[in-house]
Recover the amino acids of this structure.
């Protein structure tokens, strides 16, 4: 099982994995009150959002290819 600090770092890394100019820094003390299950649920939600965004991008690219040919 991951430690809270590792889970918080994973959340921070997922937030910074988006193509943005700003960097998200999370003070571990802000999330320290959460239990490991809550932190894992946050990670799961971020991963689902990332997958949904990826699927949306793929759909847009497929439509773009249809109209550009």
């Amino acid at each position: 099982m991951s430690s809270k600090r590792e889970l918080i770092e994973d959340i921070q890394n997922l937030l910074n994995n988006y193509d943005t100019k700003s960097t998200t820094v999370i003070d571990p003390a802000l999330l320290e009150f959460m239990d490991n299950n809550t932190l894992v649920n946050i990670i799961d939600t971020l991963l689902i959002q990332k997958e949904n965004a990826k699927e949306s991008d793929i759909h847009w690219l497929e439509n773009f290819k249809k109209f550009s040919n």
Q: What stands out?
A: The two ends are 50 Å apart (CA to CA). The chain has one domain: 4-68. The chain has three helices and no strands.
